[in-house]
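[AMINO ACID CHAIN]
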Amino acid sequence: MVDEVRVALITGGGTGIGAATARRLAADGYQVVVTGRRVGPIEEVASAVGGLAVVADASQEVDCRRAVDTTLREFGRLDVLVANAGVEAFGSAIDIELAEWRHVMDVNVDGVLLSVRASVEALKESRGAVVVVASVAALAAGPSFSAYVTSKTALLGLVRSLAVDLGSSGVRVNAVCPGWVATEMSNREVAELSLALNCTDESVRDRLVQHLPLNRMAEPSEIASCIAFLAGPDSAFMTGTALIVDGGGSAVDVGTIAYRDLG
């Protein structure tokens, strides 16, 4: 008897980590559905991997349900949800515009909740997995990044809660916490910082990774590999956890960085 092909739904699948995950899971034999708000990028990714594109805003309940319904209509099952859609906003907790704050929460937190709610019955049927793309911003704060930090921190609590509530149904829920990744989002951040510091983008990238043990940004494909692990059978006894993929940054004691000069 031939095993049924596993099916994955990826939110925010048009660029960066989402697109790389679509390519990785397709290479692993999954049928892939990618969603996003921009039709061009998701159709390009879907075409490249032989998958399906569904225009959907993860922060809208009706869109999340339509994406899952379309997946089930096309493929008859859903095995993996990769909740990747996310946005950022700059500003401290004191000065960020409330509308920006709420938009970040709507997409980054509510979007995951709504995607899981729309998927949960199908995932119970397949005893599937949810992989939430959080961030090292869930573990430590950077300056003037309060909404993003708060949203990603909230996701780890949501992941733990979902893992506890869904474990008896055989559904596993884990998070991946990337550090700096060479994506459209990080390119925007690099460009803004280079303008503020009046230096080149390359010098900014060097500054951003100078204290990471691996001294570089990740490629999106490297994060996709970790997502594929959490989605697949090799992580069958993992749920409610966060896999940190940050080039070693979280291992560094910032209070002792000055000692590097002695080396």
Summary: The chain has a mean pLDDT of 94. Residues 202 and 252 are 23 Å apart (CA to CA). Helices lie at 16-27, 39-49, 61-75, 98-126, 146-166, 184-197, 201-209, 220-231. Residues 98-126 form the longest helix (29 residues).
